[in-house]
Amino acid sequence: MIDWFRREFPNVILTGDKLVVSDGARWTAGAGAAYLHLGLGLVGHFCGERVLAATARLMLIERRRGSQSPFIEAGLAGRDIADVKVARMARFLERNAGNALTIGEVCRDMNLSVRSMTRRFHASLGVSPLSYLQSLRITRAKRLLEQTAVSFEQVVADCGYEDVSSFRKLFSRQVGMTPREFRARFGTAPGRSS
Fold this sequence. Notes:
Arc Repressor Mutant, subunit A; two-stranded antiparallel sheet; mainly alpha; 194 residues; 2 strands
């Protein structure tokens, strides 16, 4: 959806991971119930933190949520990519995101330099191949944290990573909460610590 919007409205700066965005006197919000957070943002802006906190408590709205990142999933579903090599690589990354692989290895297999593929990826999808792979892995990790009780170390391994600490940092940066917080909030299986 974000890619479609950016193609259809190239002059509009879209912030796809924020729930409420203010640009001077203009305030916007994304998602169906985001008007509640937009309202809280306006209350905070015009009335201050104390009134904002009281309003949030009165309306039973979780104030911490400022990002749509926990709900965003990576993937090509519904996307039409004109560049055949980019489409081929993106689909390969989707199928193999759980495997230990590097962008350099994939590019070599496709007879393209990393630099050339990165340029083509940016032109087609607006992100680098590495960012795309990381997003796929984060999406995979979110599903595992939601639907299973496996340890976070196993989640990391199932997402093609070896370094638990760096993946935890990547997850927290992209999702806006730690894996433990994510599992506690969205998990449907009895969880372990993350």
